[in-house]
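chain below, 195 aa
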Amino acid sequence: MTRVSREVRVGDSVISHQQVLTPLAGGGVHVAEEAIVPSELQDLPRVGTVLELLPGLAEAEWFGLGPHECYPDRQRGALVGRWKSSVSDLFVPYVMPQEAGGRAGMRWIELRDDSGGGVRLDMGEPMQVSATHFRDADLYAATHLEELRPCAETIVHIDAAHRGVGTASCGPDTLEQYLVRGGTYRWEWSLQPLG
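prediction:
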């Protein structure tokens, strides 16, 4: 077992983050995480883990809500099931580049290459998960879709908390119960090699 602790600065505030990594049989790892977000941080986009996986993991299969994107405040329009898609098709090409393609209520996801090898991520409980070929920094830097260039790696977000849709920039804001506030967040997930 390995314990990793770090502090992340957000302005004058400090988020405390701990991970406990436990090796699993077959080459996998179980990760238990805790993030303590100070109360002055009252409207975060998400709290969770970002993984950058090796190039070539182009196919996704998951059990959770789908088949289309859905967020914590948009779950009624999705169905629980086992779904398949290319990682590229999970992304939704909005006119203004932004985080997109997340699936709420995900229990597990498998990401595979052409030979069938890859990884399986199991969540400790249903969570908001996305897999894409765009890094957050690239999405935030682009003002038009044509400016985006997909990366070869697969970027996976495993979110313990994820803000609902809407920013009041051109419509209603997110409802109060779907905002991500300061507090203590705990989540668990495991990664196992496939093939």
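Residues 136-141 form the longest helix (6 residues). Residues 36 and 184 are 4 Å apart (CA to CA).
thats it, cya
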